[in-house]
Amino acid sequence: MRRLFMEPIGIFILAMICQVYSCAANVSDSVERMQYASVAGEEYLQEEKLDTNLGDKVFFEFDKSSLDAEDKNLLEQYLPFIKKAKIVRLEGHCDERGTREYNLALGERRALEVRDFLIVKGVSGKKIRVVSFGEEKPLKSASNENAWAENRRVEISLY
Amino acid sequence: MIKFFFLVVFLVSNNIFSILEIEILKGSDNLSKVAFVPFGVEDGIEESYGGQISKFIEGNMLLFGEFENLDESEMLSYPSSESDFYYRDWKIQGVDYSLIGKVNSVNSLGNLNISYSLFNINRRIKILEGEIIGSENNLEGISKIISNRIYEQITGLKGIFDTKLAYVVNSDPETYQICISNIDGKNEQILFTSKAPIMSPDWSPDRKKIAYVSFENGLAEIFIQDLISGQRDSIQALGMTNSAPVWSPDGKSLALVVSFSGNPDIFLYSLNNKKLTRLTNHYGIDTEPSWSPDSKKIIFTSDRTGSPQLYEINTKSKRKKRLTRDGNYNARGRYFPDGKSIFFVHGNDGNFQIATKKLSSRYIETLTSTSLDESPAISPNGNIIIYATKDGTNGYLGGITLDGKSRFSLPVKNGSVREPAWSPLLN
Amino acid sequence: MNKALTSLNTFFLILLFLSLIFSVFSVPKLNVDEQQSIKVNFYELSQQDDILFDSSIPNVTIKQETKKSSLTDKKIEPSEAAVVSKFKFNKSDIKNEISKIKLSKEREDILRISAIIQSRISSIWIKPNSLSESLITKVSINLAPSGEILNFKLIEPSSNNSFNESILTAMNKMTFLEDVKFLDRKLFEENFRNFNLVFKSSGEIE
Known about the structure:
The structure holds three protein chains of three kinds.
Chain A: H1 2-24, H2 34-39, E1 57-59, H3 69-84, E2 88-93, H4 100-120, E3 128-134, H5 145-151, E4 153-158
Parallel strand pairs in A: 2-3
Antiparallel strand pairs in A: 1-4, 2-4
Chain B: H1 2-17, E1 21-24, E2 32-36, E3 40-41, H2 48-62, E4 67-69, H3 87-91, E5 97-105, E6 111-120, E7 125-135, H4 139-155, E8 164-172, E9 175-182, E10 189-194, E11 198-203, E12 209-214, E13 221-226, E14 232-234, E15 241-247, E16 253-259, E17 264-270, E18 276-278, E19 286-291, E20 297-302, E21 309-314, E22 320-322, E23 330-335, E24 341-348, E25 351-358, E26 364-366, E27 374-378, E28 384-391, E29 394-401, E30 407-409, E31 416-422
Parallel strand pairs in B: 2-4, 2-5, 3-5
Antiparallel strand pairs in B: 5-6, 6-7, 8-9, 8-31, 9-10, 11-12, 12-13, 13-14, 15-16, 16-17, 17-18, 19-20, 20-21, 21-22, 23-24, 24-25, 25-26, 27-28, 28-29, 29-30
Chain C: H1 2-25, H2 42-53, H3 76-87, H4 91-124, E1 135-143, E2 149-156, H5 161-173, H6 185-192, E3 194-201
Antiparallel strand pairs in C: 1-2, 1-3
Helix pairs in contact in C: 2-4
């Protein structure tokens, strides 16, 4: 009986401890991650862009960043080219709905989702560059479902 | 039984003792009507100055649809001094306030002394008088000062006619500009032009600098630009994506969003020692921070529960509180100047509109009726919200007064205008 | 020691439980207007308008409202009574109803005129934006039987000057409330010879 009482309190206390720790965690954990910043610039643009005959975009649902079977299929087809490329650039985009700064983060999420999939498939994380433009660079400027669906994308370019 | 007895006694007695009270909760939908009488001009001064000043003031006062005017051609008299002023001339025209004034010469260098008086026609009293000395080259500036004073006298709110706007203009897919202008759209100045997107302008509290995000180096990077010298400083690239800078009310630090490896969190960045302090740490998206007026709290958007919702965090204790629960899209929150309410973008059946909510209440009230509204900014006196919206493929700025009486849109520019940021008041 | 811990734990559990319950039930309260004075709010006003234009049909569906006594010590009983009368059906309730009907004709007249006065003042009062404050200003009015406003006075001004000013401006615009002249003289003397207007700003975005 006493256990029954103890259990939720234990969880409660655990949650509190987690909270305290998460707040106390500092920026210092990110030294190695800083590398992303230093190489995310335009340095790769000096490299020649590789041509593939495949579609170079993966599309997403509104406010979602998960890949569906079709997207994964496309990426699978892409893999041989990706493995050959020196640099893989993933550019995340959103449609115009919702707020700009949130969409910037969402675009990043989408590009990272693709990156993670590629890493799982054996692509070296070191050659992947991720950038998000949020809703700032739409493919279609119209305000309708079709344009929005085309704008919610991750563009893949290989160098 | 006893209660019933009391009720009867009360019903009978209250006809004898009590005074009827009628509650008035709702005000009129009408606007106050103001007559801006052309100012009188002393002999020897350019005669058109009088009309110019009253027209400038009229233009300011009518800018946001907060007042109605009496057309000059309908005026029964054109007094320029109190001795010529007759209340009945204005009362029969339904005027609530009349502004009269006179331009006098101070010296031969073009300095003018402008005196003015404001009358409340219904109460038959003079409610304001004053005088300003200024140059004939600065009639517009003088008019702004007078406009501010009469606006404050009538509404009890701070006048905002000398504030400015910053915004982003996207005239073609390859041209992004960050601009500032007066609130009436005049005096536009281009601060920076780039081929890559520019986002999130925010004024420093002293109005001397603007922080914004630029993609000019291929990634989202935060810049601070000095408005006088034009000098631009990048906040040294911190992570993969840096975004959403907002100045603290004391101007000493920025709240901003840094994503080191794809996990955006809110940080404080001290401008003195360039130190970064983490505020949130969650695997969800945390973004769009904004300070409470007392700078104790920061409101932010987080999708930690699956959809974007607003939260506030105490900057000292790091205690978090969820602010919105209704709807599956509530983002980019800002506090009202009094800190008691917030305004934000509310997604509702696929429409994105500007909404407000009192912190003490649960209810969300939608202010706008277009469907792609975003980036709301509030006037420093808390009475007007402007926001970016879209008409076809062109973005423009719309506005609304918080009593809901007036909706307006700011003059359309070439290209898509968005992300308005309203400057603070001049101190 | 063990006992103390258990009781502490139990206490925490109860606290958690209570906070859960509270979070579920903490829906904002509705305003119960039984404690208010004759407050003809706008939902009722639409009903009132019907009566106004069709006064031949005596309408008894008007919501009964208790008046606020100027004697504050009597405040509690009527409000309680009103709540009881609203939710209980018993003998006293029926008697209560009978007394109500006796008074209903007079009440109806008072309510009707109050509603007219309310809407007329509302239509000329240009309410300033006072978002953050909830403000109350009380104005006392003296009327002549003809409806002429003999004088008015801010008896309880609010702390916000422009709010008070806006009310003075509105009151200056209004010179006649001629609707009272059709009232029974006794009713007029009892209710409208001298009455108060209570201007309120909720401090909400409206």
